[in-house]
Amino acid sequence: MRLFFVKDFLDLVFPRNCLLCGRSLYDHENNLCSICKGTLPVTSYHLRPTDNDLCDKVKGLSTVGMVMAYLKFTKGGNSQKLLHQLKYRNKPQLAKELGSLYGKILNENGYSKCWDVIVPVPLHPLKQSRRGYNQSEYFGLGLSEALSLKLENSLQRRKFTETQTQKSRLERMFNMDDVFEVSNYSTLSGKSILLVDDVMTTGATLCACANVLLGNGAKNVDLVTIAAGG
Fold first, then answer.
1. 3-state secondary structure string across 79-126
2. Which residue intervals define the domain Double zinc ribbon in the entry (predicted)?
3. How high does pLDDT run on average in the chain?
4. 57 near 64, Cβ under 8 Å?
């Protein structure tokens, strides 16, 4: 009885609302209500992981295998609102829930045995200190639980890079030269790696990371992001 009273009190003082629509959440809901989860712009990239427009983006930049994204990015849409929550509203558990949701889809479609380890794209220590967490890592943690895979922070970012929003595809790739390095070689040798990030635009960051992984003993690298545009 006392636990229920404490919970009711906390819900009153700190109401739990859906991060998209603002509705009050039920006990079984975490960050998103069931209605909003049901209307997320989920992609079908997992049905053709080696033959889609995301694969075309990275062609010539890296020899990665599968390329997939959970949500279709649209400006002003729910996917952009979720990414905004992750980057500016300190919502690590939202990133983890999105990873869990997509992990279940991948699991149901036979991907559970495709990889040996999940590696997130790292943030620069200064940026991670400001944000408080790495959203890509938490997305990876959700995937790791759903797919029963280990997550390893095997990469580190050694250079701080400016925002790439206004840069061309080629400029972004040049901007990524020597940005990443391996921090744990033992987790890579001969392994099939699932490299994860929050969003894919041109694919330059992901390809730079994939190239470092492949150059340091990874057997193969596949890419998965929370969202990606067409």
1. HHHHHHHHHHCCCHHHHHHHHHHHHHHHHHCCCCCCCCEEEECCCCHH
2. 9-42
3. 90
4. no
Beta bridge partner(s), residue 67? 223
Q: Would you say 213 and 193 are in contact if contact means Cβ atoms under 8 Å apart?
A: yes
Each domain of the chain, given as residue ranges in start order, spans 1-39, 41-228
CA 147/CA 111 separation, integer angstroms: 8
Q: What is the pLDDT confidence band of residue 14, given thresholds at 50, 70 and 90? A: low
Task: Give dist(CA 110, CA 60) in Å, integer.
Answer: 28
What distance in Å separates the CA atoms of residue 78 and residue 226, rounded to the nearest whole number? 12
Give the residue among 183, 185, 176 at the shortest CA–CA distance from 211.
176
What would be the CATH architecture of the domain defined by 41-228? 3-Layer(aba) Sandwich (3.40)
- The residue type found at 107 is N
pLDDT in tens, 179-214: 999 998 888 999 999 999 999 999 999 999 999 999
pTM of the model: 0.90
* Whether pLDDT at 163 is above 80: no
CA-to-CA distance for 121 and 107, rounded, in angstroms? 22
Non-local (6+) Cβ contacts of 180 within 8 A are 122, 155, 156, 157, 158, 208, 209, 212
